[in-house]
Design goal:
Structural class: alpha+beta
Radius of gyration: 18 Å
Helix content: 40-55%
Strand content: 15-25%
């Protein structure tokens, strides 16, 4: 299965924020949308970085509440791992596990085309395993 299968089910909408916005604005956006990360993108939908709830909490712990006035660009992860719609789900799971992150922007023709979370990947992988299990049971009962 590929990332395209996940995007076909969940859609390609991605919540983004501009790099000059503040961490406070990013935190509000994450809370309002009930998401764990926001992609920092340019007006042309190029990925500049990513900012997670964990990033914000770590900055608050290290620097105090004044950090909420800082621009997102100062604290975002700028070396973002990305995938394409044709990326294999097992590959994506490996990237997330090895890199210890939970959100992966999907890039197509150099532009943001979606995002997958570890929850999306696990959900689709479990559905795939269940379908294989069902097929195996049907095969055994038919034999």
């Amino acid at each position: 299965m590929t990332v395209a299968h996940i995007l076909a089910t969940k859609g390609r909408d991605v919540v983004t924020i501009q790099p000059h916005r503040t961490l406070a604005e990013a935190a509000r956006l994450l809370a309002e949308r009930r998401i764990g990360a926001v992609v920092v993108a340019g007006a042309d939908r190029t990925v500049l970085g990513i900012l997670s709830e964990r990033d914000i909490v770590r900055m608050l712990a290290a620097h105090g509440a004044s950090v909420l006035d800082d621009p997102v660009s100062r604290h975002m992860t700028s070396k973002v791992m990305m995938c394409s719609p044709s990326s294999d789900i097992n590959e994506v799971m490996g990237m997330m596990t090895e890199g210890r992150f939970r959100h992966l922007p999907v890039i197509e023709d150099g532009k943001l085309a979606g995002i997958v979370s570890i929850g999306d990947v696990v959900k689709h992988r479990l559905a795939e395993i269940e379908a294989e299990h069902r097929a195996m049971r049907e095969y055994i009962t038919m034999a």
